[in-house]
Known about the structure:
Blueprint: H1 2-20, H2 27-51, H3 57-81, H4 111-135, H5 141-157, H6 168-171, H7 176-186, H8 199-215, H9 220-231, H10 234-239, H11 246-266, H12 269-285, H13 289-301, H14 310-340, E1 349-351, E2 354-357, H15 363-367, H16 375-383, H17 401-420, H18 424-439, H19 450-466, H20 469-489, H21 498-509, H22 516-519, H23 522-526, E3 540-543, E4 560-563, H24 569-578, E5 583-586, H25 592-599, E6 604-610, E7 613-618, H26 623-631
Amino acid sequence: MYYIIATSVVMAAAACLAALWPSLKGKFDRILAWFILIPALMIIVSLALGLAGRLTPSAMLFAHVTILVVVIVPWWQRRVAGHSRAVATPLRGPSIDGRTAPTRVRWGPGARPWLWLLGVVSAIALGWMVYAGLLMPPFGSDSLAYHLPPAVWWLQAGRIYPAPTQFTFGYGYPQGMSLLMLWQLAYTATDHLVNIVQVPFVVLGVLASYGLAREAGVGRPWAWWAGAFFGLTPIVLEQAVVPYTDVAVAALTLAALYLTLRFRRSGAGGYLWLAGVAVGLIVSIKANGVLVAAIVGLLALVPARRHKPLHRTIGLAILALGVPALCLGGYWYIRNLVLYDNPLFPAAVTVLGRTIFPGPRTIQNLLNVTPGQTPWQSFALALQDHSHWYTYDPPNGGFGPVFTILGIGAMVAAGLHALVTRRWWVVVQFGAGMLLLVLQPFKYPRYVLFLPALGGVGFAYVLQRMAGRHTRQFLQAAAAGLMLFTLLAVPYQPQLSAETFQQVRSDVAAGRPPSAATFGLARDYAFIDTIPELNHPDNRIAYTEAGYVYALMGRNRSNRVYYVPATSADEWLRKLKDAQTTFVIIGDDRATELRWIKQHPQDFVLWTRIWPYTIYVLRSDLPRNQALIAARGGGAQ
Length: 637
């Protein structure tokens, strides 16, 4: 109930802000703004409170209630006075030939049945994924390694602080998504809600894809196909219930492109400021938001009708894109600059063979999937759809057969047709997407999830501009058939199958950790629930860097879990005792700490071994440690 109240307050405040946002025309734009402002409010408030050392659920709720009170007063006054700036007209996607697309487009033969069928089936599929995500513990290597641990540490400490130095590879990245996960953790007694943190971004991506198609001059019935191409992409459905970042980044990228095109058409600065908020969210989540900001800035400066003079447009673009990016994501880059002399740490920045910012990784590392593979070879493999198997983190394949068979061809055909017929709005849209594709890493298909949406825009364009009635019906049937095949016939996400539920529940009931064969990385988290002693609120747990840190947090995030760096066995033992350690968990059989334990066998009691973990109790005078050792019969290691 606490979570529902807090989230409702944020949603209400975001709705008021969207209604008050200047320049937006029509309900569609305000709904899109609402989806963008909700995570923006969560991140900015959590970041501000965390840096001030007041990061508690009560303080977060109080801050959001204050924001709601501040914005609801002018919203109510405007509503009562009848002077709302929102223009209640449908979104119009203008035709590039100078005419405006019809306000109402009659549903063509076959359009409504296919879309309704896809909508129903996809809703069922997404519902199953959400249900599975709510039942299962968090999983995924990135989630367990460096997305979730900071959220727990910050909640426990009540402040935001740099992660332990041995984890700089993962924790050097922007951690805005960790703040969104922190919101799910703060008001619930479980962490299962973090699995669905990306679900709202699926909806945002569908809406933004629809908006992009409308901006390309496509009518409503066909524009929804653009949304379907994004929302029914296998990786999108996979990642909807994995605490990763890629669906969020793709959806916000599509929204930023749409809002910038709306700004170009109208010259209204409110659209560019909202695009800046979307870019700021990307920058706070992933460093490639810098590329999105650059492309959005270029689009904003392209001359268009009713625009301000160029120097004023440049000033507006700098402010509209720079201020939100600095407020939402600037901290992470400033932190890296102070700690590591590199704002983009861990990636080294090299210009003309000279290293400007040092770092342990290179751009080549990010681009290549395997040694000896060029970036373009990696990208070519990513386009080869492997329809027999989909996972949330595939190195190659996963966009789905509808994109591979229809989307790529439609994108090429639409781009060429728009270029020949001088429909420059479409050319600009595809050009911006292709430029972003070329500039950013594509080591995995999930890095470029905006690409299926562009394929959907091309498909929608072909339906309206290039296809006759019978061809249109055939293409819709073919697209729907390929999407239904992906949804119903391909066994993607095997971790979330009904058999897995039964296996995991029986393992936990029997006191066993869930089988690695059926649930993979989730075992690294779930094993802790099979050892009740590890969930005691008085525990202080030390770990080695070889294991997943989040696996050691325990129920309700009660454990205090930390890393103890040392250079010798004696120094390590002293630090463990100074920290009043209860358990020591070794995550690797070859860990140096195991050799150190053998040098001081009188100070450690073996508790249990659960591969790949070995767990010890530290001998000390602490009551908690004494009780545990007594339960083991006082045995020595």
